[in-house]
Amino acid sequence: MLGEISNKGVTSMLIDAVKIYCKKKGMKLLNTDNNISSDIFEHINDYIYDDYFEYKVDIFVCNKNSELPDIFIVEDSSHEFLVYERIIDDFCCLSHQKKQELFSFTGKKIIVFRPFPKTLDTDIIYNKIK
């Protein structure tokens, strides 16, 4: 999927990116310390607490900016993981200690977590929210 992540700095950057992404999306991480592993993309639901949704990791290569979601993680060619937010027709880098720069996302690996309902059974949903 993303290849082997062995560099401690890269893993730390991945963890930071996931934390920023989840916080911005309102997703509650079960494990907010640095025990998040690089296997998060294979086992995303082991790391996110949500009564209503399960998540799937969607990874794609950007062909044009118009296909980018409002918030996403980008893996650049130097294996840095950065979180960006769309602001009208521009993008803002939300990652820590990263200065804002003009950035082309074309050809870059984009990572998002897509929610899917755990159930569509109305009785189960009602019992969870009452």
UniProtKB/TrEMBL annotation:
Domain of life: Bacteria
The name this protein goes by in its record: Uncharacterized protein
Source species: Salmonella enterica
